[in-house]
Amino acid sequence: MPYVRRNAEGTITSLHRERSLEAVEYLDDRHPDVQAFVGNTSKQPEEFSRLDADFVRVIEDVIDTLIVKNIINITDLPGEAQAKLFARKTFRERVSKNSLRLFEPTDFGDVI
C-alpha cells in the first residue's frame, strides 16, 4: 500500500489500497510524497522526540518533588516505574559527573 492518484502538477491527491484506473502508481508508505500527503514532514519526528524527551524530564522532576514533599513514596510506584526512574537517575548522575559545573562551589573559596 498505497496506490496514489496525482493531479496534473504531479502532486498526490488521494491514496488507495487497491489499484484503480485513477491510481496506478504504487509507492511505499515511507516515500516522501506519501509522507508529505499525510502530513508527516522530516522535521516532525525530530520535534516530537525532543518534546517527548523534555516532557519525560518534567515528569521525572514532578515525581521527585512529590517524593521530597512526602506526598508519595517511591514504593507507591509500580516496580517497572521504580526501575526506570532509578536507571534514569543513575545515568544522569554518571553523565553529570563528567560535565562542567559552572555554578557549584570550588576549593578556591570566594574569589572576588
UniProtKB/TrEMBL annotation:
Superkingdom: Bacteria
Name of the protein in question: Uncharacterized protein
Organism of derivation: Piscinibacter terrae
